[in-house]
Amino acid sequence: MDIRLLSLEQGRADQMATQEEVRGRMAAMDVRVEAHEQDLRTSYARMRSEMDTLRLALQEMQGRMEESAFRSRGAVEKGSAFKDELVFLKDEMMKLSGRIQHLSDYVGLESAVVVPVDSHVPDEKRSGKKEEQTSAAPLDLDALYAEAKQAFDNGAFERARDGFQEILKRFPNSARADNAQFWIGEIYYRENWYEKAILEYQKVIDGYPKGNKVASALLKQGLAFEKLGQKANARLILEELVRKYPGSSESLIGQRKLRQL
Fold first, then answer.
1. CA 102, CA 194: separation in Å to the nearest integer?
2. 196 exposure class (CB count in 10 Å sphere: 0-12, 13-18, 19+)
3. What is the band of 204 on the pLDDT scale with cuts at 50, 70, 90?
4. What is the largest CA-CA distance in the chain?
5. CA spacing 20 to 30 A to 191: which of 103, 126, 155, 165?
6. Angle at which helices 2-78 and 81-97 pack, to 10 degrees?
7. How far is the C-alpha of 176 from the C-alpha of 196, rounded, in Å?
8. What DSSP string describes 143-208?
9. 261: buried, middle or exposed (CB in 10 Å: 19+, 13-18, 0-12)?
10. Distance CA 39, CA 232 (A)
11. Euclidean distance between CA atoms 40 and 224, whole angstroms
12. pLDDT per residue over 248-257, tens digit each?
């Protein structure tokens, strides 16, 4: 009888020890889960803060460009002063590029980013040579688009830009609008004005989120940031591209580029 009682007591003691061990493990697991959740909350807060920094930087870039555009118009009237104003504009834009430094892991460029006004400096004024005037723009959307795209392919960027802007002005809701906006960004990219190209690509992302040029716009934004030496920004944009458009040709290019950054 005493042996049975002793055995029963030992069994209860073992069971209590096992339960205590399980409770200890569960408590330790709870601590790890809570720590992980805290890390996630901290990371998310940091990402949101960095995205706000980007938006503020883009808004400031927008304001500077509007101011520079206003000054440029005054400089055109003065003739020879225009060239000096262009140098001022370029210097200001390069300073702004250094301020876009804090982006993080794919929060997404939401529509809170402002859509900048067009403030480009015409090619004929930059080069000092007046481009030959073309005939009046056709009324037909497809013809106007074809003419602008051909000018782009031929390197006549000023004429192409005018054509694409005409499409956006007269046919803002057409199926060609997002493409026209993208090619405007491409023109600035080809002209090595990467800050302006980034803003024009953003118009594609914000204005035509369901269009066929969003992936391309994200890719070229990433490449433009890289051209400016902003590798952290480039990485964020390219990671967003890969996340949102897996399997696309743009995503594959973005993945290769990410491995090089």
1. 18
2. buried
3. very high
4. 115
5. 103
6. 180
7. 21
8. HHHHHHHHHHHTT-HHHHHHHHHHHHHH-TTSTTHHHHHHHHHHHHHHTT-HHHHHHHHHHHHHH-
9. exposed
10. 21
11. 30
12. 999 999 999 9
At residue 49, what is the residue type? S
Question: Quick one: pLDDT at residue 105?
Answer: 35
Percentage helix, strand, coil for the chain under 3-state DSSP, each rounded to 5 = 75, 0, 25
CA-CA distance, 21 to 193, in Å (whole number)?
65
Write the burial class of residue 221 (CB in 10 Å: 0-12 exposed, 13-18 middle, 19+ buried): buried
Q: Which residue has the higher pLDDT, 221 or 115?
A: 221
Q: Could you read off the pLDDT of 126-138 as tens digits, one per residue? A: 334 334 444 444 4
CA atoms in the 13 A half-sphere facing the CB of 76: 11
Residue whose entry in the numeric block shows the structure tokens 């934004």: 221
Query: What pLDDT is stored for residue 254 in this prediction?
Result: 96
Give every CB contact of residue 212 below 8 A, 6+ residues apart in sequence.
178, 179
